[in-house]
Amino acid sequence: MGRLLTGLLTLIGLIALIAVGGYFALRRPDLPFATLAARYESSASRYIDLPGGVHLHYRDEGVAAPAPTLLLIHGYAASLQTWEPWVARLSEDYRVVSIDLPGHGLTSAPAGYQPSIEGYRDLVEEFASVYGLERFAIAGNSMGGNIAWEYALAHPERLDALILVDASGWPETEAEQGTQPIIFNLLRNRTTAALLRDLDTTRLTRQGLETAFADPALITDAMVAQYRDLSRAHGHRDILMQLMLGGSARNFATSERLAPISLPTLIIHGGQDKLVPARHAHLFNDAIQGSELLTLENVGHAPQEEAADESATSVGEFLYRKHEGSALPSAAAE
Fold first, then answer.
1. Is residue 163 within a helix (H) or strand (E), and if so which, with residue range?
2. Quick one: which of 5, 83, 234, 268 could link to 72 by a disulfide (CB 3.0–4.6 Å)?
3. Strand ranges across the sheet with 69-73
4. What are phi and psi of 233, to 5 degrees?
């Protein structure tokens, strides 16, 4: 019996040793911002320093002022690159500004930065003030949509219009959380989040993107690499983990909270979105008086990428109506 117990303990120790060795083999260090900039900057990339120490990456493209301005806010774990299809289609008629939030893309934040929806909302206002954006339409996808409607509540005087693209912010049912990528559920647990923080997340990243898109064939190796690489910028993994762990503490949407929004509002939602159910788009539409709802069938969580032509055309037509012809869409001109 003693020899059997000794053998069992030896086997357990060996398995633990292999597990620990595997863990360290999968660990990945932070990537320097200079390395990431060389890979993912474009000729339009610019940086601005904001109060509090944020070094923010942005792009200002399209028609120069005084053309109507559209400010684009990306979602969780994404970057301003998610908006490139819209920029390509809308920049002939509009000034299109996109930003990377702290913890995302090529924006760097000071040590100890505490992320939150409200903090991001205030950062958008800091950027608008420092950069000199006086009036603009704001569009946000997913978490960026949550930031956009919070900004509309706080600073309606800045805005010409509000565009919500598969926007988050309503409480989720347990069943709705069950359809989300496994990486989201892992990151909501403090123990597993800490274990995953420094590991190679290539496989989980691909699975998350395949869940986000209705057509997983659109997920390329380059897209997976971009999401994975940018998440490894110095400080980003801590911010992403904090955002997920603090998600239940956010100030959720209610009909009463959204009632003051009187801006022209366009709501776009993918009919096959597994991250933010289409039910939430109807909740926004019911809560915001006079809003317009466009549901794109066979489209997932990122219509700006998966249905770029249809979604951008709808945005262009919506903004054209709201500006009463101050910017003539190219399609209409033809």
1. strand 159-165
2. 83
3. 45-49, 55-62, 95-99, 69-73, 136-141, 159-165, 265-270, 292-296
4. -60, 150
